[in-house]
Design a protein that fits this description.
The complex is a heterodimer of chains A (572) and B (164). Chain A is an alpha/beta fold and 572 residues long. In chain A, 36% of the residues lie in helices and 16% in strands. Chain A is built from 21 helices and 20 strands. In chain A, the strands form four sheets. Chain A has a six-stranded parallel beta sheet with strand order 3-2-4-5-7-6, sandwiched between helices. Chain A has a six-stranded parallel beta sheet with strand order 11-10-9-12-13-14, with helices on both faces. In chain A, β19, α21 and β20 form a beta-alpha-beta unit. Chain A is globular, with a radius of gyration of 24 Å. The model of chain A has no long low-confidence stretch (mean pLDDT 96). Chain B is α+β, with helices and mostly antiparallel strands and 164 residues long. Chain B folds into two domains: 79 residues, Alpha-Beta Plaits, CATH 3.30.70; 74 residues, Alpha-Beta Plaits. In chain B, strands 5, 6, 7, 8 and 9 form a five-stranded antiparallel beta sheet that branches. The longest helix of chain B is centred in the middle third of the chain and has 13 residues. The model of chain B has no long low-confidence stretch (mean pLDDT 91). The chains are: A alpha/beta (572), B alpha+beta (164).
Chain lengths: 572, 164
C-alpha cells in the first residue's frame, strides 16, 4: 500500500522526471514530504509563475517534459500565466497542484480556488483527482497527453486527503483514451499530392514552424530544402529548425520578418508550411497572404488546418514521418531563376541597424553575443523589441537554441526559462536576453540560479522604455507616449507623480548583487564584448546591463492589418 | 472575411466521456467565442460511460467548423458531428402550462390532439400539455396556444440524430 503522495512521486519517476520546479504550501505538504526522500533534483522557486516558466524552458531546451508542483489557491493561480504560455506554444509541461481536502471543495476554504475551472482554457487537459486509486493512471496519462500530438501543458489537481489516503493501485503500460488518438502517419495520397505540387512548382517556399523542432524533423527539413532547392523561412518559434546560415535561409517572416521572407511568401506559387500555425503576426492581412500560392499545410493538429488561411493540400501528421515519406518522391532541382530572385532580396535587404550610432544599440549588443559565443548558446528572451532583435541578429543553427514566448508573448518568461534550460543542459552556454521592462516581472528567480550554481548570463537591454509599446505609440498613436517611460522624463500625463522620480530605477547591478549574482553595467559599445567574455568566464550567474539608445525601432515592420507586401523599412 | 460566410443555426452533437468537467469544457469553448448556446441536451448513451451532447448554436459556418475541430481536439470528447451538413432527425419535448377555464378547456384539448400532444394535468384554472415533435412542430403549437395565455414552458432542448 502506498499513499497518494507516494503514488504521485513514484509516477513522476516512472515518467522519467529527474528535475522538478516548485514551491510548497499547505495542500502539498504530503507531496513535499515524499519529495524530500525522492531521487529528483528540486528547484525551489520564489513565485509559482517562475516554476511554470522553468519547467517550460527545461522542456524547450531538452525536448523532455517539464514538471512543476504548486500549492492550491494562489499557488495554482500564480501558475496560470506559465500554463497559458506553454499552451499557446505547444510545450509539454505537467503541473501538479495541491487542492483543499475533498470535503472542503466548494466551501470557500482557505487557499481554495477552482483550479481545474480556471486552468481549463489554458491547458491541453486537466484533472481533479477524486479517488486515490486513479492517481497512478492519471499521472501516466498526464505525461502521455502532454508529450504526444501537439504537445501542451497538463494540470493534475490533487486534494490533500487524496494525497494521504493509501491504495494498492498501480499502473503500467501505455495509457489509452478513446477520445485521444493523435495522428502521426500522414495520408499517403496527400503526401503524393504535395510531392507532385513541389515537383511542378517554379517558386516554392517552405514555412517552418515550431512543429519541426517538436518533431525533431530538422534534418529531414534540410534534406528536402537542399534537394529541391526550396528557400526556407522559419517562424519565431521555428528558429533553429533550419540553419540561419544556410544560403536557402530566408530568416523570419511576418510583422518583423525579413524582406526576403515576406517577398518570397508574397511571390511564391507554392507555400509548404511545416508545423507552423499561421499566427496573425506571421500572416499579416490574411486575404492577401501568399496570394499566388497553392498552400500546403503539414500539421499534427487537425484544428490548426485552415484555421486562419485557406489550405489547398492539408497533411495531418507528424512532421518527421511525413517529410521522410515525402523526400524520395521529390525531384532534385536547381531552380536557378527563383533562387537568383531570392538571393537578390537577401542581399538587397538583410537585417540591418545603424552601425554609425555611437551609443549601444540592442542590435549591436546581440550581434556581439553571437560573435563572442560563436553562435553556440541557448538564447532565451523576454517579449518586446529585444525579442525581435534577438531573432534578427543572432543566427540560430541548432534546434532548441532559441527559447521565447511566441504565442502568449509573456514578459517575465526569459529569466526563469533560462534557468530551466540550464538545469536541463548544463554543458551549454545559456543567455537570457531581456529588456528593462520584462526583466522586472520575474527578477526574483535569479536567486534560484545562484543557489543551484547555474551560470546563466542575463543581458538586459535598458532603454528606459517599454520599447515595443513606445514604437507603436510613435508609429500609430501620433507620438502620444502614454505610460511607456520607465524613468523620469516623458511620463504619461495622468500619472500625477508628486516629485520627479529618480532618472534611473532600479539599479540592476545592485539588484544582481543583492540576489547573489554578479552585476556588470556597460554604457559604451567597446565595453560590450569584453563584458560578455568576462561574464562567460566567471562561471556564475551574471547580469549585464547595457544602457542602450532610448528610442529605436524594430524594422522592417508590417503595420498591423497590412499585407506582407507593405513593409516599412527603417534605414533606406 | 465574414462577408462570404453565412450565419445559421447549427445542430452539433458530440459523444463525450461521462465525467465531470466535460460539459464545462465543451460549453466554455463555444461561449468563449461569444456564441450563445440556444439549446443543450446531455444524457448517457447505451454505454453508460459515454454521454451524448446535442447543442444548437446560431453562428458563422466557418467559425463553427473551427469550433467543431477544437471540440474534437479535447481529450474527453470522443467524436463531434455538425449535423447541419447532413440529413438528420430532431425532436424536442415540452411541457406547457396554459391558463384554461371550463369554457375554453375543450378547445385547447382539441388543439393538443391535432398536434399529437397529451394532457398530463388539469387544474381549476390551468392545464399542462406534453408535446413531443420536431422543433418546428413544437414552435407551431406554442404559437397557436399563445392567445390562451401560456403560464410556463419547460423544454427538453433539441435532441438529434443523423439518419444514416
Amino acid at each position: 500500500m502506498r499513499s497518494g503522495a507516494k503514488c504521485t512521486i513514484d509516477a513522476l519517476k516512472d515518467a522519467g522526471v529527474k528535475t522538478l520546479f516548485g514551491l510548497p504550501g499547505g495542500t502539498v505538504l504530503d507531496l513535499f514530504d515524499e519529495l524530500a526522500r525522492a531521487p529528483l533534483e528540486f528547484f525551489l522557486v520564489r513565485h509559482e509563475q517562475g516554476a511554470t516558466h522553468m519547467a517550460d524552458g527545461y522542456a524547450r531546451a531538452t525536448g523532455k517534459p517539464g514538471c512543476c508542483i504548486v500549492t492550491s489557491g494562489p499557488g495554482a493561480t500564480n501558475a496560470v500565466t506559465g500554463l497559458a504560455t506553454a499552451n499557446m506554444d505547444g510545450i509539454p509541461v505537467v503541473c501538479i497542484a495541491g487542492q483543499v481536502p475533498s470535503h472542503m471543495i466548494g466551501n470557500d476554504a482557505f487557499q481554495e480556488a477552482d483550479t481545474v475551472g480556471i486552468t481549463r482554457a489554458v491547458t491541453k487537459h486537466n484533472y481533479l483527482v477524486k479517488n486515490v486509486d486513479d492517481l497512478p493512471r492519471i499521472i501516466a496519462e498526464a505525461f502521455e497527453i502532454a508529450t504526444t500530438g501537439r504537445p501542451g501543458p497538463v494540470l493534475v489537481d490533487i486534494p490533500k486527503d487524496i494525497q494521504r489516503q493509501t491504495t494498492s493501485a498501480t499502473f503500467s503500460g501505455k495509457p489509452e483514451r478513446r477520445g485521444y488518438k493523435p495522428v502521426y502517419e500522414g495520408n499517403s495520397r496527400q503526401i503524393a499530392k504535395l510531392a507532385a505540387a513541389i515537383n511542378a512548382s517554379r517558386k516554392p517556399v517552405i514555412l517552418a514552424g515550431a512543429g519541426v523542432i517538436a518533431a525533431g524533423a530538422s534534418a529531414e527539413l534540410a534534406t528536402l530544402a537542399r534537394k529541391a532547392k526550396i528557400p526556407v523561412t522559419t517562424t519565431l518559434l521555428g528558429l533553429g529548425g533550419f540553419p540561419d546560415t544556410d544560403p536557402l535561409a530566408l530568416r523570419m517572416p511576418g510583422m518583423h520578418g525579413s524582406v526576403a521572407a515576406n517577398r518570397a511568401i508574397s511571390t511564391c506559387d507554392l507555400l509548404i508550411s511545416v508545423g507552423a500555425r499561421f499566427d496573425d503576426r506571421v500572416t499579416g492581412k490574411v486575404s492577401e497572404f501568399a496570394p499566388n500560392a497553392i498552400i500546403a499545410h503539414i500539421d499534427i493538429d487537425p484544428s490548426a488546418i485552415a484555421k486562419s488561411v485557406r489550405v489547398d493540400i492539408p497533411v495531418v501528421g507528424h512532421a518527421k514521418s511525413i517529410l521522410k515519406e515525402l523526400i524520395p518522391q521529390i525531384e532534385t532541382q536547381a531552380r536557378k531563376e527563383w533562387l537568383t530572385q531570392v538571393h537578390g532580396w537577401q542581399k538587397e535587404a538583410p537585417f540591418i541597424y545603424d552601425t554609425r550610432e555611437p551609443r549601444i544599440l540592442a542590435q549591436y549588443a546581440i550581434e556581439q553575443i553571437y560573435e563572442v559565443t560563436k553562435g553556440d548558446a541557448i538564447i532565451t528572451t523576454d517579449v518586446g523589441q529585444h525579442q525581435m532583435w534577438a531573432a534578427h541578429f543572432f543566427k540560430y543553427t541548432q534546434p532548441r537554441s532559441f527559447i521565447s514566448s511566441g504565442g502568449l508573448g509573456t514578459m517575465g518568461f526569459g529569466l526563469p526559462a533560462a534557468i530551466g534550460a540550464k538545469a536541463g543542459c548544463r554543458d551549454r552556454n545559456v543567455i537570457a536576453i531581456s529588456g528593462d521592462g520584462s526583466i522586472q516581472m520575474n527578477f526574483q528567480e535569479l536567486v534560484v540560479a545562484v543557489e543551484h550554481d547555474l551560470p546563466i548570463v542575463v543581458v538586459i537591454m535598458n532603454n528606459g522604455y517599454l520599447g515595443m509599446v513606445r514604437q507603436w505609440q510613435e508609429m500609430f498613436y501620433k507620438k502620444e507616449y502614454s505610460a511607456v517611460r520607465l524613468d523620469q522624463n516623458l511620463r504619461a500625463r495622468n500619472e500625477k507623480l508628486r516629485d520627479k522620480p529618480p532618472g534611473y530605477l532600479p539599479d540592476f547591478v545592485k539588484m544582481a548583487e543583492a540576489h547573489g549574482a554578479a552585476g556588470l553595467r556597460v554604457a559604451e559599445k567597446r565595453e560590450v564584448a569584453p563584458a560578455l567574455r568576462k561574464a562567460l568566464a566567471m562561471k556564475r550567474p551574471v547580469v549585464i546591463e547595457c544602457i542602450t539608445k532610448p528610442d529605436d525601432n524594430v524594422y522592417p515592420m508590417v503595420p498591423p492589418g497590412a499585407s506582407l507586401s507593405e513593409m516599412v523599412q527603417g534605414l533606406a | 472575411m465574414s462577408n462570404n460566410t453565412s450565419i445559421r443555426r447549427h445542430t452539433i452533437t458530440a459523444l463525450v466521456d461521462n465525467e465531470p468537467g466535460v460539459l464545462s469544457r465543451v460549453v466554455g469553448l463555444i461561449s468563449g467565442r461569444g456564441y450563445n448556446i440556444e439549446s443543450l441536451n446531455v444524457g448517457p448513451t447505451q454505454d453508460p460511460t459515454i454521454s451524448r451532447m446535442t447543442m444548437q448554436v446560431p453562428g458563422d459556418d466557418r467559425v463553427l467548423e473551427q469550433v467543431t475541430k477544437q471540440l474534437n481536439k479535447q481529450v474527453d470528447v470522443i467524436s463531434v458531428t455538425d449535423l447541419t451538413r447532413e440529413s438528420f432527425l430532431n425532436r424536442e419535448c415540452i411541457l406547457v402550462k396554459i391558463a384554461a377555464t371550463r369554457k375554453n378547456r375543450s378547445e385547447i384539448i382539441e388543439l393538443a390532439d391535432v398536434f399529437g400532444g397529451k394532457v398530463v394535468s388539469v387544474q381549476n384554472d390551468s392545464m399542462v400539455i406534453q408535446l413531443v415533435g420536431e422543433q418546428q412542430h413544437v414552435a407551431d403549437f406554442l404559437k397557436l396556444v399563445a392567445p390562451f395565455k401560456i403560464l410556463d414552458v419547460s423544454r427538453s432542448g433539441v435532441i438529434a440524430m443523423g439518419k444514416e
